Automatic annotation (TrEMBL):
Designated name of the protein: Flavin reductase family protein
EC number: 1.-.-.-
Domain Flavin reductase like residues, every copy: 39-185
UniProt KW keywords: Oxidoreductase
SUPFAM superfamilies to which the protein is assigned, alphabetical: FMN-binding split barrel
GO molecular function, one term: oxidoreductase activity
The keyword Oxidoreductase is assigned to this record: yes
SMART domains from the UniProt entry: Flavin_Reduct
Domain of life: Bacteria
PANTHER family assigned to the protein according to its UniProt record, in alphabetical order: FLAVIN REDUCTASE, FMN REDUCTASE (NADH) RUTF
Name of one Pfam family that matches: Flavin_Reduct
Region (Disordered) location: 1-27
Length: 194
């Protein structure tokens, strides 16, 4: 049987068999609604995933993270019914543009299902083809990665695309964040501001 250790808010470590604290008061929600509500309280950065090729496509995503430094791997999660899913599979690669605080309109553009398809959807933004994958890299982003598709894993109604990083670069600056269903930025005192 696993040993459980918990750390209290004051840093006190409680030993084996410790019981977790009582949950905060609030209504219990069905699993799907509850997950959506809880995850809206987890602040994340915002990226735009892109794939090049015949069916070039872009999509705003916050489900992105690093996996490994050796080898250099990252992952993104994409709904299996999204156009981005087939674009990544067909291209066998993808790129990630990490958005800066002043790129709310870019995030909204690539989250809008009514935007044009193919390369026409990139007419509204500054971009350049990635030198390793041809996937669009968005101008003004804080950082970029180009990835070869390393593996695909089923994760419920999404696929988890693990990419081997082929190239990366960055400029620095303030990030665009997603929290509570809205895009936010940090001001110079590190307070979230709308």
């Amino acid at each position: 049987m696993p040993q459980h250790y918990l750390t209290d808010a004051d840093g006190t470590v409680r030993g084996p068999g410790a019981k977790p604290p009582e949950p905060a008061a609030g209504p219990l929600l069905p699993a799907r609604a509850g997950l959506r509500e809880v995850m809206s309280r987890f602040a994340t950065g915002i990226t735009v995933l892109t794939a090049g090729g015949e069916h070039a496509h872009g999509m705003t995503a916050n489900s992105f993270t690093s996996v490994s430094l050796e080898p250099p791997l990252v992952l993104c999660c994409v709904s299996r019914v999204a156009r981005m899913h087939s674009a990544i599979v067909e291209a066998g690669s993808y790129a990630v543009s990490v958005l800066g605080a002043d790129q709310r309109d870019v995030a909204r553009h690539f989250a809008d299902w009514r935007r044009p398809g193919g390369l026409a959807q990139f007419d509204a933004v500054d971009w350049t083809p990635g030198p390793r994958t041809g996937a669009p890299l968005l101008g003004g982003a804080l950082a970029w990665l180009e990835c070869a598709l390393d593996s695909v894993h089923v994760g419920g109604d999404h696929s988890i695309f693990v990419g081997r990083v082929l190239a990366s670069s960055g400029t620095g600056g303030d990030p665009l964040l997603f929290y509570g269903g809205d895009y936010l930025r940090f001001d110079d005192r590190l307070r979230a501001t709308a």
